[in-house]
User: Fold these one by one.
Assistant:
Number 1:
Amino acid sequence: MEKPNIVYSSKINKIRSFALILLFAGMIVMYGGILTKSTPWLMYIFFGLGVLLILFSTLVYFFIGLLSVRAVPVECPSCGKQTKMLGIVDACMYCKQPLTLEKSLEGKEFDEKYNSPEFRRKLKEMKKNQQNQE
Ligand SMILES: [Zn+2]
């Protein structure tokens, strides 16, 4: 059986492409407004929707800015570039190399589930137990 070849993209890149899609969608919807200008109410709906989408995309860009501040800058071991990580596991923004901040996860297969709060809690407990044993 063939293994699915999933390329993990960096979370920041993912959100950024989402914001870009929103921006384009907003412009397309507004263009729809120009096409329907013979029907004023339809035109207003299109324009209103377009403005909303563009505003939302601006919000998402703002959100990326906030996230970038919280992200951990690391040097990618694979391409040597400075990249930013969100959460325990993330991918390099440039070469898509999966990266982890957690030593115990090194070498393990990349899995988004490691970023869930549930897993974080488990990890914390694991560390606590280890400290108690020492
Ligand atoms: Zn890289």
Number 2:
Amino acid sequence: MLNDQAAGLRALHAQQKQNSPAVQNTLNPPKQMMSKQQKPVRVIAVASGKGGVGKTNVSVNLGIQLSKLGNRVLLMDADMGLANVDIMLGLHTKYNLSHVLDGQKTLREVIMQGPGGLKIIPAASGVRRMAQLNAMENAGIINAFSELSDELDVLIIDTAAGIADSVVSFCRASQEVIVVVTDEPASITDAYALIKVLSRDYQVSRFRLLANMAKSPAHGRQLYEKLSKVTEQFLDVSLDYFGAVPYDQSLKDAVQKQIPVTLFRPTSLSANAFENMAHSVERWSRPQGASGYLQFFVENLFQGR
Ligand SMILES: Nc1ncnc2c1ncn2[C@@H]1O[C@H](COP(=O)(O)OP(=O)(O)OP(=O)(O)O)[C@@H](O)[C@H]1O
Ligand SMILES: [Mg+2]
């Protein structure tokens, strides 16, 4: 406990040193000032019920295609499992979010330059800690994220599979939740369970379905129809179709090479699908008011725990 508080103070002190005039405002930010000082950032969580259905590939490749369209994209690796973003990209990460929470590093210092213009926060062990922060640490981390707003257009969060606490927290705080499914019974029932829990217990009411490893565009659409029939019948949610990513050997080869398929085979079917999806994201309407801001996301992450 004492250690926690000391760490919190150090984190806050580090932030104060970096940007002292902003600290007062960040600890108790007047909402009307946020819109003047910060620009809106799209916050998108990528989730799935079942593991191994393609979340990390979706996060990375959608991020790269959005970045090719001129967006400044930050990818947060919020999965503590083994198939982490850094492994997929062959990056050697030394520091992660937990070092920011400890006050050893600033958020900027742990952000890595990934391929294709993507910036990456290796969150790893920091993710669980984030759910246990005291008020002082919260203020430090909210401040740290808020400072990034001006440098970002999109934040993508690659979550862990299933309904772990960290997953629901990230989905609840995000503006958009992409649910990745494949055409396997377990993937579909687990996606349904995830949507059910998020809507019933965490007031998430809108989801976008991505059908991965689809045999054809029609196959992807069918998968969506299958799931949306059940959600319409039993849940009070809106489930929109985001699109299909085809089953693609190029993507598998790219994973082997630790290069995102959008860079390894930019004209492959899957890279093409990710490009179309990036265009769709740009057409999504932005939330009105405070929820369009990064600060709202981070504050929300800590609420209702
Ligand atoms: N469109 C696709 N075509 C072919 N294979 C794919 C496709 N998408 C994913 N895969 C395969 O599935 C594997 C798992 O993908 P990925 O690591 O992105 O899933 P994940 O949902 O992030 O997994 P985890 O739940 O373990 O984090 C990839 O290594 C790749 O072999
Ligand atoms: Mg993953």
